[in-house]
Design a protein that fits this description.
Number of domains of chain A: 1
Mean pLDDT of chain A: 90
CATH architecture of chain B: 3-Layer(aba) Sandwich
Structural class of chain A: mainly alpha
Radius of gyration of chain B: 18 Å
Strand content of chain B: 15-25%
Shape of chain A: elongated
Distance between the termini of chain B: 36 Å
Structural class of chain B: alpha/beta
CATH class of chain B: Alpha Beta
Number of strands of chain B: 8
Helix content of chain A: over 70%
Order of helices and strands of chain A: HHHHHHHHH
Mean pLDDT of chain B: 85
Low-confidence stretches of chain A: none
Number of strands of chain A: 0
Largest sheet of chain A: none
Order of helices and strands of chain B: EEEHEEHHHEHEE
CATH superfamily of chain B: P-loop containing nucleotide triphosphate hydrolases
Largest interface: A-B, 24 and 31 residues
Number of domains of chain B: 1
Oligomer: heterodimer
Low-confidence stretches of chain B: none
Amino acid sequence: MISLLIRDLKLAFRAGGGFGLGLAFFLIVTVLVPFGVGPNSVLLSKIAPGILWLGALLACLLSLDRILALDWEDGSLDLLATSPLPLEGVVTIKSLAHWLTTGLPLTLAAPLFGLLLSLPEGGYLWLVLSLMVGTPALSVIGTFGAALTVGIKRGGLLLSLLVLPLYVPTLIFGAELARRGAEGLATTTPLLMLAGITFGVIALLPFASALVLRVNLR
Amino acid sequence: MILSVQDLTITRGGIPVLEGLNFALEPGRALVLRGPNGVGKTTLLRTVAGLQPPLEGRVDCPPETIAYAAHSDGLKAMLSVTENLRFWADVFGQKDISAAISAFDLEALADRMAGTLSAGQKRRLGLARLLVTGRPIWVLDEPTVSLDTASVQMFAEAVRAHLKGGGSALIATHIDLGLEEADVFDVGPFRAKPRAAQAGAFDEGFL
C-alpha cells in the first residue's frame, strides 16, 4: 500500500507526471477573472470565494483521467488487480495520491490566489479550511469517475461530464462555507455538511470504484 | 499447488470462444498453450488469473497463488529498472530483487529509466517481475515476444529453475522453449460452437 503511494507520488513529481499543472491552471483562472468582470474590488471580493472554489474544482478535474488511465494503458492495472493488494485499497491509495498532488497544493496556494481577488481579510482561514475539508471528496469522486471510464479511449470528456454533477454538493457547501466565513456569518452548518459529504464518499465510494474497475477490466 | 480447470467455457466480448476445457497443472510441470490467433488463449489466461469470470465451469486454484504476465509489462517509463522491480517486490511482500536482476541480466541497466530501454530489454524487465512475486503458478501470455535467442534461453532457464523449485507455469507461446517438463495443449479443437443468445447477457448492450 505504502509502496503504491510512494510510486504514484514519484510518478507525479517526475517529468510528465502532471504535478503543478492543476496549480498553474488555478492561477490562470484566478488571474483571468478580474479581466472578465473588471477590476472593481468590491465586486471581486464579493465573488472571490465562489470563483476560488470553482477554480480549484476545475483544476482538480484537469488531472482526474491520469488517476487510472495511465496504469491501464501500460498494463499495470491488470497486474495490480492480480496482486495481493485489494482493489478497494488500490483505488483509495490512488485517490489519496491524487489529493496529495492536486487538492493539497491547491488548498495551500489558495490564500495567495485569494489576495489576487481581494478576498476580505477574515475569509482566508475559512477558505483554506473549506478547501481542506472539501477537496478530498473531489479526489475520491473523481477516482470513481476514472474507474467508470477506464479503458475508453480519450474518455476525459466523458469523465468530466460524469463527475461534474457529482461535484455539485461539495461545491455548494464549500463555496457557502468560504463565503459565510468571508462575510463573518455563522459557519457551522455548511462546515458540517461539507465534512459529512467528504466522510460519506470516503467511506462508500472506494467500494463502488473497485466494483466498476473489476467489471471494466474483464 | 495444483491448478485444475473443469468444463470451462470462456467468453470474449460476450461471445463464447472456447468451451469444454479440462486440464490440470501439477507442481513442477509446465503447460504450453497452442492455437491460432484469436482462438482465445489470452482470454483463457485472463480467466485463469481471475481477471474475468468464466461463463461455465470452474478454475480450481486460489487466485493468490498466480503470477500473471500479460502482453504489456506494466512498467513505468519514469521509474528506473530497480525502482520498477522494487515496487512489485514490495507489493508482493518480497525483499530480495537481486536474484531477479541477475536472472535476466539487468545489472548493467539497473539505474536506467525503464522508458529508455529497448523493447526486448523492457520485456526482460517485465519477466523479471515474475521472480519477485514469489508465487508458485506463473500464467504467461506470449512471454517471448521481442526477445532475441539469447534472451529466450535466459527465460527458459528461469522457467526451468522455477519448475525445479516446485512451481508450475501455464504459457501461451508459438515458439519451442526446449522445456522437457512441458506438455503441449492445443486449444484449437475446443472452439465454441455458435450459440443462441445467452440468457443473462442483456447487460452487454450497455458496455
